[in-house]
TrEMBL record:
PANTHER family in the cross-refs: RIBOSOME-BINDING FACTOR A, CHLOROPLASTIC-RELATED
Location within or outside the cell: Cytoplasm
Gene encoding the protein: rbfA
NCBIfam families for the chain: rbfA
Gene Ontology, cellular component aspect: cytosol
Keywords: Cytoplasm, Ribosome biogenesis
Organism: Aquisalimonas asiatica
Molecular functions (GO terms): ribosomal small subunit binding
Superkingdom of this protein's organism: Bacteria
Summary of the function given for this chain in its UniProt record: One of several proteins that assist in the late maturation steps of the functional core of the 30S ribosomal subunit. Associates with free 30S ribosomal subunits (but not with 30S subunits that are part of 70S ribosomes or polysomes). Required for efficient processing of 16S rRNA. May interact with the 5'-terminal helix region of 16S rRNA.
Name of the protein in question: Ribosome-binding factor A
Pfam family, one: RBFA
InterPro entries to which the protein is assigned, alphabetical: KH_dom-like_a/b (IPR015946), RbfA (IPR000238), RbfA_dom_sf (IPR023799), Ribosome-bd_factorA_CS (IPR020053)
Record flagged with keyword Cytoplasm: yes
Length: 125
């Protein structure tokens, strides 16, 4: 990714906050569930934004399906953002599943199992 300017960073942070609220309040599709917007990357010209998201408590396939549903609703979400955010042009949105939550949960379970195995070994001795 290209170097972010302070303006693009501020716009990305504001879009992340507003998108999280907009999705929570206006998207009524039950397949979307509890979406977490983990990050937004905005191009330097503020024309496009990649929105990284995941569905809490669901597997990667469900989160990927939710990303496709949100990509279908991107025009609606862009219009809603235009009403909430004071920008000359609201960036075109592209939703992408963020696998970092899945990796974090997997690493956490690996650590827990290693601790359990270590405790079993120490109790056997």
């Amino acid at each position: 990714m290209a170097k972010q300017t302070p303006r693009t960073r501020r716009v990305a942070e504001q879009l992340q906050r507003e998108l999280a609220e907009t999705i929570r309040d206006t998207v009524r599709d039950p397949r979307v569930g509890s979406v977490t917007v983990s990050g937004v990357d905005v191009t330097r010209d503020l024309a496009h934004a990649k929105v990284y998201m995941t569905v809490l408590g669901e597997d990667a396939e469900t989160s990927q399906a939710a990303a496709e549903i949100l990509n279908g609703a991107a025009g609606f979400l862009r219009r809603e953002l235009g009403r909430r955010v004071r920008l000359r042009t609201v960036p075109a949105l592209k939703f992408i599943h963020d696998p970092s939550f899945d990796r974090g949960a997997r690493l956490s379970s690996l650590i827990d199992s290693a601790i359990d195995e270590d405790q079993e070994r120490s109790s056997d001795n």
